[in-house]
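Dock zinc ion; give full complex structure.
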Amino acid sequence: MRIRILGSGAGGGFPQWNCNCANCRAVRAGAPGFSPRTQSSLAVSAEDGNWVLLNASPDLREQIAAAPELAPAEGDPVRASPIKAVALTNGDVDHVAGLLNLREAQPFSVYAAGRVLQALGANPIFTILQTQLVPRIELRMDETIPLKGAGVDLGLTIRAFPVPGKIALYLENKNAPNFGTSAGDTLGLEISATKTGKSFFYIPGCAKVDEPLANRLRNASLVFFDGTLFHENEMIEQGLLGKTGSRMGHINMSGEDGSIAAFAPLNVARKIYVHINNSNPVLNAHSKEHAAVRAAGWEVGADGMEMTL
Ligand code: MLT
Ligand code: MN
Ligand code: ZN
């Protein structure tokens, strides 16, 4: 199984168009230790020429252009794509807007939780993906199902499970607060290769590593995990946004309640942060925070990083 990080940034990417924080200024200036990052997405293949996207970011066009494997191959019909399916972890803009890049009457499948399918269904712009060509398939929690698209079995299975998180920002209701988690708002995905049985986890948004999640991840070979913030309060402290990480549905890396501490006893062979927000000091490869996550056995995800499993 081959996995490519298409985008390792959080919503807004790095630099973010309207952000003048120290990190965004440094990456714009080409400072050493800083690399630009597009928004949150992975591509996976059973190495048969077909690909599944895990989330579809607003930067998808650029991400496809940077990955020749995702373009039509020589000898393909005049309209063709190796992208046969998209699986979504939530309904956030940074994870669904890229579906609109996949219009032009190309068949593929969309897999998502019922609540996310409802949100897509309530927005007429997504009817541009006609359901006869682009079926929407509900991911039921803790069911393992084969990934298929455009009439092809993709040689991979998917199992979705709920993780602590939050409803998409644009669905928050200030009058009847619904900022917590309802099952299906935020998913983790376990993707397995049918042939080899090897598997990895993709969890780009997660508010807390609770007991059920810790049990699931123990002894995993590879986990891509929510790397939004280093500190719970960094958005507030940098004057960017008046919200803590928990209010945004994202666990911080550092501290007693952070992901570094939560993963320490889990014996995960390879752990990679993705969905990294532009405020996060680990984006500076020369920072003490970057050194701290590396010393704790984590990798800081970067666009274009590839691995086989
Ligand atoms: C998030 O990860 O919290 C969201 O992408 C925020 C947003 O929708 O801007
Ligand atoms: Mn996001
Ligand atoms: Zn910034």
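Observed: The CA atoms of residues 33 and 286 lie 6 Å apart.
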